[in-house]
Amino acid sequence: EKDGYPSFMEKEIHDQPAAVGDTLLGRLDENGRLTLDEIKIDETVLRSIDKIVVIACGTAAYAGQVARYAIEHWCRIPTEVELAHEFRYRDPIVNEKTLVVAVSQSGETMDTLMAVRHAQEQGAKVVAICNTNGSTIPREADAVLYTHAGPEIAVASTKAFLAQITAAYLLGLYLAQLRGNKFKDEISTMLAELEAMPAKIQRVLDEVEPQVKELATGMKDAGSVLFLGRHVGFPVAMEGALKLKEIAYIHAEGFAAGELKHGPIALIDQGQPVFVIVPSPNGRDSLHAKVVSNIQEIRARGAETIVIAEEGDDAVREFANHVFYVPEAPTLLQPLLATVPLQIFACELAGAKGYDVDQPRNLAKSVTVE
Ligand code: M6R
């Protein structure tokens, strides 16, 4: 069942082009318009939504954070992301005009389920983004957008994460389309860009995987690894850190790169490995230049900089000890590519340390207790 891979996790990392492709499948009509038949919530209700709250835990919550950037940009609907176990206990302001998006691979996470129930009690409609057909969260939700990643066996989530992000993009673009947003051209461009992602993910696997594996085996003795990202690269950084904690038992932290000077830069010392996820140099604003200057700052303080950047981005070379290039993509879609080297890194490092990659200590695949 592992298709010849040493672990389910490694197999599932390789399943990702298909996971993303299958999640997109059948959701575009012949005119390139999105058809999400599963969203059985009245369109007038969806048009009246004035706030979106994404609730989830762990990796699914990082998918939610990526979703926030995309949904707010495309739909101009204020969007919050909250850990499901925190959401319920802060007396959240949720009502009939709130759309709650519950993201869960298993559909059985108790914290998320309880948050769904709480939101529904306040009158909110709930859309579940879920990978497990017929599980509890989609059964109780008002609508479901299934991710078609196939069963995920490894405790550390990989392909479900990419599929969740893909489904969230579809939801965001669907809402933008439904609400007649003025971004019509952007919607069709994004849909075409999404269709191109499976092949680009495959390229990361083909071209970058061997380099990342080599780096990982040489870093078996790392005591702590930091991850920096900005905009959608921030949740990617958090996800990279979580993977490493979960399966390689290495202390790891993800930071927003802009936060570095507000404290974490004090951690940078000679030889400290730091992954940096660099936004596209073609993106808006000056984010790229800012992140490059972050790399420069930490390198000057002795960090070992491991940079994930877009192909053709030569500006990062000067300050990077290692660079992994991923194919070009619109900034909002970059997490589908930039996450992959981080997953490979954690998987390879954990394997090199002799750990059970699929069944890390103290963890269960689905957390059905609060
Ligand atoms: O099944 P869910 O998506 O609701 O699970 C949520 C988290 O428990 C899960 O993502 C967890 O963080 C993974 N082990 C991450 O690799």
Report the strand count: 10
- Which sequence of strands runs across the widest sheet? 2-1-3-4-5
Count, helices? 13
Percent of residues in beta strands: 15-25%
Q: Structural class from helices and strands? A: alpha/beta
Largest sheet: 5 strands, parallel
Distance between the termini: 32 Å
What would the average pLDDT be, to the nearest integer?
Answer: 94
Low-confidence stretches: none
What is the H-and-E element order? HHHEHEHEHEHEHHHEHEEHEEH
Global outline: globular
Bound molecules: 5-amino-5-deoxy-1-O-phosphono-D-mannitol
Protein name: Glutamine--fructose-6-phosphate aminotransferase [isomerizing]
Catalytic activity: D-fructose 6-phosphate + L-glutamine = D-glucosamine 6-phosphate + L-glutamate
GO molecular function, one term: carbohydrate derivative binding
Subunit structure: Homodimer.
